[in-house]
Amino acid sequence: MLLVMSQKLNLVLGGCLTCILLSAVLAAQGANQRTRPYVEALAADALEGRLTGTTGAHQAADYIIEQLRSIGAESLPGQQDYRLPFEFTAGVSDGGSSLVITNGAPWQTAEIVQGLSFSDSAVVQGEVVFAGYGLVVPEAQEFSYDSYATLNVEGKIVLILRYFPEDVEQAVRGILARYSGLRYKAMAARQRGATAVVVVTGPRSPNAGQTVPMTFDTAISGSGIVAASVNGAVADAIFEHVPNQTLDSIQAELDTGNPHIAGFGIDGLELTLDVTVTRETLTGNNVVGYLPPSSSRVAPEAKPYVMYGAHYDHLGYGMQGNSLARQNEHGAIHNGADDNASGVAAVLAAGAWLVEQELGRGIILAFWSGEELGLL
């Protein structure tokens, strides 16, 4: 990736010029001869696939820094180190969440009540408002939808369905799907003053009646709201307080996609929701080197930087769910020679060539971690 940057690293230009410039640089110096040692070192079994936050990734960062030093690259102006550390969520678990319906016995176990991975940990008590699918599609879209249009959820616990309406035309499905993520739904409820969100997988949906698996996103921050999922038995117990309707009949009506079907408060019902989510936080490192412009050509502050960049992390043992390994290769080291040791090698080789040239601009050599976790 090639970027032209201002002194404050504001993006000015990015594009496929990278391929042209890197190809020219590498062709001029014999690409295979210069890049192969880098690829072999980074894709070695000893680095165990370079998963962000692991020992292998830290060793990869050490290796890249060693190469930067060997070609004479400096740390970024204003920085004392080549490493730019960041924190991320590496794992999440439910610490024993529970829900009580109006002075009843608590529902506990993960098969019945489970915190969502982005939930705050807290105890919340309050009245309940059912908000359908909990969808908010901005009016700027060709199809708008607002589950909260007629509702006041200030200080309330919001009960919503997972996913989005099923029986709608394909174009509408595509729009609704973009706004159906549970973190997005939880944020929409929070913005309207809700204190908590309870998610149920409806009887007409895939995985009907099951709690939401506690997969994690890698954002270090929570969502600012308590959020949990409950199974079908809990949902049925809640809907015993709704006269003349069942969750099945309500979902059938909602699945027509009519955005004007109103939610409702559930009279006489109060929930106590206790969610405990434990997050494992690790540290990753971006690595950045700097080649100053030639003093005979230009003052350092006079022109934007040019940046060459590549991510250096990979999948470790491929246990994060995005491995392309064959079935008999699951759990094996994912060496990542082409994703992206080769890209790192190209940037290092380009840097080694550029340091010998008369540079009219400062050059940044950037190596990102966290790409495979979706952090870029």
UniProtKB/TrEMBL annotation:
Entry-linked InterPro entries: M28_fam, PA_dom_sf, PA_domain, Peptidase_M28
Ranges of residues in domain Peptidase M28: 286-376
UniProt-listed GO biological process terms: proteolysis
Residue span, PA domain: 125-238
GO molecular function ontology, one term from the record: metalloexopeptidase activity
Protein name: Peptidase M28 domain-containing protein
Organism: marine metagenome
